[in-house]
Amino acid sequence: MASVEDYEEPTANRGHDPPSRARGSGSNGGGRGG
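^ that's the sequence the OP posted. Answer follows.
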């Protein structure tokens, strides 16, 4: 999903909700980044 790219760049700029990014980042970002 495009969300993966959001983790790298500021989702706030794209128009996505800042809290939404932090939530997915911990779950998806952690596994993908690691």
